[in-house]
UniProtKB/TrEMBL annotation:
Keywords: 4Fe-4S, Cytoplasm, Disulfide bond, Iron, Iron-sulfur, Metal-binding, Methyltransferase, rRNA processing, S-adenosyl-L-methionine, Transferase, tRNA processing
Localization, UniProt: Cytoplasm
Protein's recorded name: Probable dual-specificity RNA methyltransferase RlmN
Catalysed conversion reaction: adenosine(37) in tRNA + 2 reduced [2Fe-2S]-[ferredoxin] + 2 S-adenosyl-L-methionine = 2-methyladenosine(37) in tRNA + 5'-deoxyadenosine + L-methionine + 2 oxidized [2Fe-2S]-[ferredoxin] + S-adenosyl-L-homocysteine; adenosine(2503) in 23S rRNA + 2 reduced [2Fe-2S]-[ferredoxin] + 2 S-adenosyl-L-methionine = 2-methyladenosine(2503) in 23S rRNA + 5'-deoxyadenosine + L-methionine + 2 oxidized [2Fe-2S]-[ferredoxin] + S-adenosyl-L-homocysteine
Main subcellular location of this protein, as a coarse class: cytoplasm
Keyword Cell cycle belongs to the record: no
Role according to the record: Specifically methylates position 2 of adenine 2503 in 23S rRNA and position 2 of adenine 37 in tRNAs.
Stored InterPro entries: Aldolase_TIM (IPR013785), Methyltransferase_A (IPR040072), RNA_MTrfase_RlmN (IPR027492), rRNA_lsu_MTrfase_RlmN/Cfr (IPR004383), rSAM (IPR007197), rSAM_sf (IPR058240)
Keyword Membrane listed: no
Source organism of the structure: Pilimelia columellifera subsp. columellifera
Binding sites annotated in the UniProt record for [4Fe-4S] cluster: 113, 117, 120
Annotated segments matching region Disordered: 344-364
EC numbers: 2.1.1.192
Length: 364
């Protein structure tokens, strides 16, 4: 695992580290205020700290976790995607998406993914390792700083939402995911001070972990990556379904909704001639009828060389019509980043030595 970072620790833990290093405990508060309150990740910019303390605390509390490899911008400046190299060479991605009323960060919880969904670039790459709490949080703090700089065109200069929909299965890194959520939602200087209601945790359906999450006392949105309403097809598209079937996954989701009062988001990638048949829309409607749920249809962003492609727009519209006719709240996700390999895992795959593509310096 990477070196210990202040984001891995609560405020008391950071103060203890400062004291053990021969510094006064309040120095940890100062560093934390810079990091979480001003999104400052460079200790040399923390000029209210004496120079010797800066160097010492940089080593103990702010070791570098993410080294930028590439940053690509599209959608007229509203979407920014970054690829990071971690301390051990693993690669992860994060994305910043600006809208008229909000800015959303999409972050990774693992390097790679072990869920092996065949239409997903990350799933095809396999799992490298879990990320630490610090590596997860540092993605968000970096993106919050980008938003605060005004770089996201046409959007507020403030990060307000985080979705754990980047690389990896968040609930397969359960303990660190929950710690990261708490760090992001605790007020500064201990954390970033975001609203729990503005965080979304996505999962392919690790049913026991969903039930455990329901008991954490959190108010985050749960997103279930369903992608098929029937076990026969979902066994192929989401291999973990061979262990936890559709009924069990949805039952765990309804438990989460019942305990938290939060509406469950059902994610459904629209794949041409695979899962977009009208009868599957009808079946999905029956499964969700009367439940606290919303369907988010996702036009598939195909990966290079993949046999999977996005549904025809007319087919997508009919799928939406049938779900809404069944009384199911349904939207189609805004497609972002197609011209910059927007599907999660595509850029990291391109930067990997295994791809044969030479690594490049971070582009501004």
């Amino acid at each position: 695992m990477p070196p210990k970072h202040l984001a891995d620790l609560d405020l008391a833990g950071r103060r203890a580290v400062a004291q053990a290093s021969g510094e006064q405990a309040f120095r940890a508060n100062q560093v934390s205020a810079h990091y979480f309150g001003r999104f400052e990740r460079d200790v040399d910019a923390m000029t209210d700290l004496p120079a010797p303390a800066r160097r010492l605390l940089a080593d103990k509390l702010l070791p570098p976790l993410l080294t930028p490899l590439r940053e690509l911008v599209c959608d007229e400046g509203a979407t920014r995607k970054a690829v990071w190299r971690l301390h051990d060479g693993a690669l992860v991605e994060s994305v910043l998406m600006g809208y008229a009323d909000r800015v959303t960060a999409c972050v990774s919880s693992q390097a790679g993914c072990g869920m092996a969904c065949p239409f997903c670039a990350t799933g095809q790459a396999g799992l490298t390792r879990n990320l630490s709490v610090g590596e997860i949080v540092d993605q968000v703090v970096h993106l919050a700083g980008v938003a605060a700089s005004g770089a996201v065109v046409g959007s507020p200069a403030r990060l307000s939402r985080v979705v754990f929909m980047g690389m990896g299965e968040p609930l397969a890194n359960y303990a660190r995911l929950v710690q990261a959520v708490r760090r992001l939602t605790t007020p500064a200087p201990e954390g970033l001070g975001l609203s729990q209601r503005h965080l979304t945790v996505s999962t392919v359906g690790l049913a026991p972990a969903v039930r455990k999450l329901a008991q954490e006392g959190l108010a985050v949105t749960l997103a279930i990556s369903l992608h098929a309403p029937d076990d026969e097809l979902r066994d192929e598209l989401v291999p973990v379904n061979q262990r936890w079937k559709v009924a069990e996954v949805l039952d765990a989701a309804w438990d989460y909704a019942g305990r938290t009062g939060r509406r469950v988001s059902v994610e459904y990638a629209m794949i041409r001639d695979v899962n977009d048949q009208p009868w599957r829309a009808d079946l999905l409607g029956r499964l969700l009828a009367g439940r606290l749920a919303h369907v988010n249809l996702i036009p598939l962003n195909p990966t290079p060389g993949s046999r999977w492609d996005a549904s025809d727009p007319a087919v997508e519209r009919e799928f939406v019509r049938r779900l809404r006719a069944a009384g199911i709240s349904t939207t189609v996700r805004d497609t972002r980043g197609r011209e910059i390999d927007g599907a999660c895992g595509q850029l990291a795959a391109a930067e990997s030595p295994r791809s044969g593509v030479r690594e490049r310096e971070a582009a501004q």
